[in-house]
Design goal:
- Helix 2 packs across helix 3 and helix 6 packs antiparallel against helix 8.
- The protein has a six-stranded mixed sheet, with helices on both faces. It has a two-stranded antiparallel sheet with strand order 1-2.
- It is built from eight helices and eight strands, in the order H-E-E-H-E-H-E-E-E-H-E-H-E-H-H-H.
- It is of the alpha/beta class.
- Helices cover 43% and strands 25% of the residues.
- It has one domain: Rossmann fold (3-Layer(aba) Sandwich).
Length: 215
């Protein structure tokens, strides 16, 4: 496991952003873990998350012209990530986001920030069913831009309705690359390598879950 994944997992576990137990997902599945990106809710936590996004993006080799954050969760994510990319990696890219309701005064429209044009990289927290990403992709195309990739905090590596995960379906349908800071495999590897007996007691349940629902 790379240093990025290790430091990210240590942080999210220490701050109870990633928790282990029994959780009912929107799909109805009972999951032995839950990743709540909404708990990156302080300046320090958001700064850390943005630094990790920036590192994952810089390491990915993706080329893009503009960053886009889907409303509403993507707005602070894209703003903070744009700052981290510029300050830590010298990648100074414009960013923008959408508003849910079109503004009929001032600058008008639904896009706030830089012009949405050219190869566009979406910044989002997680991809579950992929509905929100498809909506964001439609916005990008409607503005004459092109979706070239997506960066997410975690890839659950979990089957959707078929044999592919939601992320794999999106990669296949849009012919793009999705970059994640961590994956479910990283979580399992971290539990295997951990010296914390309280953490290791969840390894069996998480591994069994992946065996049943993973891709």
């Amino acid at each position: 496991m790379e240093d990025l994944q290790s430091k990210f997992l240590e942080f999210v576990i220490d701050n109870e952003i990633l928790k282990f137990g029994e959780f009912t997902l929107k799909s109805g599945r009972k999951s032995p873990y839950f990743f709540n990106a909404g708990l990156f809710n302080t300046g320090e936590k958001l700064a850390f998350l943005a630094q990790c996004y920036a590192e994952a993006i810089a390491n990915s080799g993706l080329t893009f012209k503009v960053l886009f954050g889907p409303a509403y969760k993507g707005i602070p994510l894209v703003s903070a990530t744009a700052m981290a990319l510029a300050s830590q990696h010298g990648i100074n890219k414009p960013y923008c986001f959408n508003r849910k309701e079109e503004k009929d005064h001032g600058e008008g429209g639904t896009i706030v920030g830089a012009k949405l044009t050219g190869n566009t990289l979406i910044i989002d927290d997680v991809i579950t069913a992929g509905t929100a990403i498809r909506e964001a992709a439609d916005i990008i195309v409607a503005n004459g831009a092109k979706l070239c990739g997506i960066a997410v905090a975690m890839d659950r590596q979990e089957k959707g309705l078929g044999e592919l995960s939601a992320i794999q379906e999106i990669e296949k349908n849009y012919q793009i690359k999705i970059v994640s800071i961590i994956t479910l495999k990283n979580v399992i590897d971290y539990l295997v390598e951990s010296n914390d007996k309280l953490l290791q007691q969840h390894l069996g349940a998480v591994s069994a879950y992946r065996e049943q629902f993973g891709i």
